[in-house]
Structures are given as C-alpha cells and as structure tokens.
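agent> fetching stored inputs for the magnesium ion docking request
agent> found them:
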Amino acid sequence: MLDTGETREPILEVNNIEVIYNHVILVLKGVSLTVRERGITALLGGNGAGKTTTLKAISNLLHSERGEVTKGSIVYRGERVQHLDPAALVKTGVIQVMEGRHCFEHLTIEENLRTGAYTRRDGRGAVEADLEMVYSYFPRLKERRKSQAGYTSGGEQQMCAIGRALMSRPETILLDEPSMGLAPQLVEQIFEIVKAVNEGEGVAFLLAEQNTNVALRYAHSGYILESGRVVMEGTAQALRENDDVKEFYLGMSDKGRRSFRDVRSYRRRKRWLS
Ligand SMILES: Nc1ncnc2c1ncn2[C@@H]1O[C@H](COP(=O)(O)OP(=O)(O)OP(=O)(O)O)[C@@H](O)[C@H]1O
Ligand SMILES: [Mg+2]
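agent> prediction call returned; pasting tokens
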C-alpha cells in the first residue's frame, strides 16, 4: 500500500493562527496545519507567501522581528507551546533549521555539530554516538569535519545545519527552504538525506519549500500557502495529480509550461476557493 502518511498520529497542530508584524502588517490570515508523527509535511508557496513566518511562529522566533501571533493556537503533543522560548521548545523535541543554512563560520564542521547538543544532559557518550549517527547520514560532513564551516560549500553548509539540528535528538525538525541556492543534483541529495533521516530515525519534518516539484516527491502530505492563507492541502500524491497544482506550481499543464508567477493570484484564489 502506498504510504500517504495520513494514518500517522498528529503531533503538531497549528490552529487558525494570525501573525502581525509591527502591530499593523497582517501576514498570516488564519493558517491551520497538522504535522504527523514520523511524517514529512511540505509547506509550499511562492515568495512572501508566509512559509517562514509560519515556521517562526511555531518556534517562537517572531519577537526579534517585531512579529506576534495575535490569534489561534499552536499545540505540540497536546500542550500549547506559544509561551516556550526556542531553547525550551528544543527540549520538547522541536527544532528549526533556519533559511540560509546558519552555521558558525569560524567553527569547524564538527564543532558546529557539537553545538547542536547543547541542550542535552545525557552525557558525552550519547553525544559521541550521535555524532557518528549524523556522519552516517552525511558522509560528506565526516570528510570535512575539520574544515572551518565558512570555507565549505553551500551544500555542505546546508548539511551541517541539518546535522546540527539532529544533534539535539529532535522529534520534529522545521526545515526552511533547504533547496535555496543549491544546484538540482545537490537538492536531490539533501532531500534523499531528509528521507533517510525520516525513515531511519523517525524524525518528522515540516518542510517549507518554493521548490514544489522536489518537495512533493519526498513529502507525505502538503499545504499550499498564498498571501498568508492555506489555499490547498492534501496528500502529496493528490497534490501532485491536481490540475491547478500541475499548472501553477509544477509547470506541466496541457497549455504548456507556465510559472505560477505569470498568473495573477486573484485568479488562482478564485478557482481554488470557489
Ligand atoms: N520582519 C518583518 N516585518 C514586516 N513584514 C515581514 C517581516 N518578515 C516578513 N514579512 C512579510 O511577510 C510576508 C511573508 O513573508 P515570509 O518570509 O514568511 O514568506 P516566505 O513564504 O517564507 O517567502 P520566501 O519563499 O521568499 O522565503 C511577506 O510579505 C514579507 O514581506
Ligand atoms: Mg521563507
């Protein structure tokens, strides 16, 4: 049977949240989504759709940007988590990998990975074992472990950022735009690793991506955001086969290849919500 991920238990539930920046700019206008245990959930949409804002709302990183959740709730394993700071959230098992693959440039790859274990209290042995676990998924990082992160390639830095998150032994990783700025072959490699970590370690992913094509090939289910609203949701298979998704996000319609940017969002919304 095809695994759509729909049979897994929900662990993270975002219920109808609104986010406002600078007290006035309403960016998320009632976003709801569910992340399932051990599943890969894609959060799709173009530039400025609200993907990063959604991830930051979940991990409580909006304050530094003068943003706040003004409505709705965010619940992880039955507990509201809006009051938790990012470090406390890491302890409950949720960690965000930020857009732009943030590594500490002056530290080596291995030092970067070790910083990911800072919230843990289970001793050196466990951390050493997890370093080997991370290297088993990212052999490239093992080769480069003594290199200063600032001098490694974009792909290696993305791997380092994901590996660093894994060192906190998370249950759920919020991964923002892992494909950004990487060549197609490397994007594929990164997604293969995400899939391997998902299957091998049981880590759930909420994956924000503009690259609909690759994300829907690896995710179990997905949501499409436009201007701060979810305009479509479903299993990855249903989304891949949907005519509007094909036309506007996958560029595969009968009418020839078109980017969703070519079409006014008004028209798309009208079709999807009617
Ligand atoms: N700190 C901020 N202050 C005011 N507006 C912001 C701020 N951060 C983001 N925005 C606005 O919120 C909207 C959503 O941005 P967001 O970064 O969440 O989109 P995104 O889907 O992640 O886009 P991208 O694919 O380009 O990363 C955009 O219109 C953006 O201009
Ligand atoms: Mg973004």
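agent> quick read of the result: Confidence is low (pLDDT under 50) at residues 264-274.
agent> awaiting further instructions
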